[in-house]
Write a structure and sequence with these properties.
521 residues; alpha+beta; five-stranded mixed beta sheet; three-stranded antiparallel beta sheet; 63% helix
Length: 521
Amino acid sequence: MKGIGNKDFYRYVIITVLAISFYIALFSLLPDSRVVCSLSDDAYYYLQISRNIALGNGSTFDGINSTNGYHPLYLLILIPIHLLVNFNRLLAVRAIFILQGALYFFTLYMVVKKLKSEVGVFGLLTMVILTLYPRFFHILTVGMESLLSLLLLSMIWFYSDGFFKGEGDLKGGFVLGILCGLLTLSRLEVGTVVTALLVLVILIVRFRKWGMRAISSALIIPLLYVIMVMPFLIWNYMVFNHILTISASLKSSYPNIVFNWRYILTYPEYYLGVLVFAIYLLYSGWRRRGGEVLRSLISDALIGATCIVLLLSFLLFARWAHFSHYYAPCLLPIFILVAVAGDYTAGAFKRIFRPVAGRTIFISLLAIFAISSQYIVHRDALKTFKIASYEGAMWAKENTDKKAIFAMKDSGTFGYLSGRRTVNLDGVVNNFEYQEHLKQGRLDDYLSNIGVDYIVQHALWGCKRYVDVYGNETYELYLPSRLCAGYGDSLILREEDIVYKSSDYMDRSGNITNLAIWRYR
């Protein structure tokens, strides 16, 4: 495949990457309701916990219970943002998009820098434009740790390539060890898989040639990895008596298998993309046999193997709350595939049409795709429960006491923007004590002991509605223990205790529903 010179590289590709980065940053200028609804509800867990840490309140979402339900590196990055905006909640939300734009730029810069000697400018442009595809663009702008982990993974891919092609010196091992540690702290399972595979590959591929040098360069990676990651794991164990985070404990069934093939149907582009990438690597290795050629494929194989392991872990052990941003690492092999395919397609256009006309048609089609994709993104932006959570949060802020305590599932947006202490009833940013109360059927005791004043449910269809012979209406809100399968407890809420009900909105499943707030005591 034909490479491109530095002049074309900076002129055509980097400017495009900068333009999209600037476009992401411009989201920070949207109206309040629109900018709020652009972030994932889970992103507000990060914002609220990092805000509490910056205020000196400790690692807590609700200001009552300690929690470790997050990946620590992204949280640490958010702490100074609150200080910079003087703890203004909406300004912090807007700053997230500037951060996402910067992360996007450096991620694509690393990928383009790695591929620029392998594919042409139009292949790289195709790859960059693909990031505007709504399902991928959502991952890049959702406000979660996904883009940070993708950046670190792309850096490991870039530096491991030079490490394998060179002599694998201690300096290279030091850099990769630091990056693996940072990747783990940004997304725990991804960094663990990459580190294990990286050390294994180094020992297998280079052991005979390097001897003790291979062992030294391989061992420095897990050594640095342990030094960086172990403090967080020790803190987990000392504070929560569990080495894993509460969110990982609730969402993973490991070692029990709960195979869910529906994930393949829900996110087919990632499973298909990684599969095609694996086939592409096997074909490339077979066609271009030889030591030097195969060494150039090792870093690609490392990324492919990482994504395969992650996809298998999702299929076998993910039992609950499975979202698209979990698949962020799978974007890297997809980017590589699209760059190769775009390079080939651009060549076909130039062969079919005159060179200038072929390039014009190709770029025009990319532009049409980008514009139409973003139309879809903006068209559906307000069709989620986040708009109802935002409006409910504004009501609570204006109509309830500052010391009032709320309890709610999917409570990120509401808890952060309302400025009220909000206990998370899913449990992902709560603690293990809450799961024990659910297991014992003592939910009312738990809520009463911490002084909950209001119960919030973002979708009334999530409650069973009953009407007795006298016409009195009640709602049953069932809350399962995600840690202890088969256990849970219910709250019985009366129609007459509803103090706020949002206007109708349509959720992601197409259901018309409402957000409701009940007075609990």
